[in-house]
Amino acid sequence: MHELHDDQHVPVTVTAVAVTGDTARLVVIHASAAGTAAAGAPVVAITGLDPDDTRATLDRVRAAVTFTGLRWPSRPVTVEVGPATPTVPDAGLDVAVAVAILAASGQVPTGAARAVLVGELGLDGGLRTPRHVTERLTAAAAAGAALVIAPAGACAIAASVPGITVWYAHHLRELVDELYAAAAHDTATATGPARPGGAGWPSPGVPVADLAEIPAEHLGRRLVEVAAAGGHRLAMIGTPSATTAVARCLPGLLPDLDDDTSRQVADLYRAAGLVPAQVAAMRRPPWQAPHHTSSTPALIGTRRKPGAVSLALAGILFLADAAEFRSHTLEALSAPLDTEWIRFAGPDGPVAYPARAQLVVTTSGCPCDDLDGCTCTPVRRRRYLQRLQPLLTRVAIRAVVPPMSPPGPVSGESSVVVAARVAAARAAARARWAPHVTATNHDVPHAVLQHGSTRIRPVDLAQLRNAIDTGTVSYRTAGHVLRLAWTLADLAGRDLPSDDHVAEALILTAGARY
Prior knowledge:
The chain is an alpha/beta fold. 36% of the residues lie in helices and 14% in strands. It is built from 19 helices and 16 strands. It has a seven-stranded mixed sheet with strand order 3-4-2-1-5-8-9. Strands 11-12-15-10-16 form a five-stranded parallel sheet. The longest helix is centred in the C-terminal third of the chain and has 19 residues, at 415-433. It is globular, with a radius of gyration of 24 Å.
């Protein structure tokens, strides 16, 4: 969780869209916190809503906030909706009211005011598509809104509304984390996560962030470049603001999907009811970011509907706060990660969905997530992270990521520059592994790595052999090291990995081994 600042009560202004009858119009929500609550008085008071709607709105927002793990204010917060009172209940203001309350109590950056917020809240914190969402988005576009935050379920509708940039979120927790990541790099305006363009249908919910926002010296830049170039799975331990900011840059480094894969992705999204029936292709790699409260069927799927691991086909399955997932849910991912298929048996015959996704895992280093005042014992921290063992053993890149400092005077390379290097590395790998019907280094079978013309020279493998002999590297991890060494060589434009590439690969696999 992010650090709270109850002593900083800055008035907050958030913009939303209210609907009365068939008319959608922008409304402004002001929130301020000060003083102490009087005995028997509500901590949060709302004015400007329909009286019958006030209590229902507060009940939904409070349930969502507390379920998400955030804190309901302990000091009075006054929320005012204007300029005119909505005459009918409108649950589409829920997200805006929640963000205003959280910002006024120091739990969300005040930069959220730069976006128009649209969406209902479920009692579990999930963002739901409100009624009249088309009218709401159209009103925001007509008002010249630079950025709209909407539920991920509204992506198909939002894609049909011209003139707006939309940032999608599945859950209030995800929204808060993204707001912190955006605030860290001043990306809450037009440079924030956006609905991607390009040929074909845009993949719902894909964030767009530029590596130029990440400090030039930050480790995360190297991690996502190597992960993108080789298709490797990635695990990062660190503060949510740093790990999320880094992870959001990965989609912008990946190339478009080929024709066959783009059609497969569209088939899966149509089966899940996430895009219109007429959508035949989705060119950009998809992004799935299920919340840690998601059920196993939501992650794995059912006979009738693909889950997140399948909807991330040829794209990214992003598990933020991964150690908070239920243990049985993480264990259920083990077989799909190994076989890259989900199979369901049934009386009508088996059903299979592909599960070929690039896994990205982030987590804090301990349950309390308090870098400054952590009192967790080493044993408690180790047990917390051991929950991730079913995933970490199947992840190539494992790193402890340092906190994010503001970008210095010399910015790092942009995503456009790095994406070109990634494309060249992928082309080299594709040409090398073509006889083995493999496109990326991540997919190369272990046997192929050890035999034939693609075997790394024994003199360059001395460090790896020593690590295996001393028991610090397992057979599975040795395969990760070899694949990473090839990716590092591809990025450097080398025909064969050197001992330096093997040494860096060993470091990349060892950073978060628990």
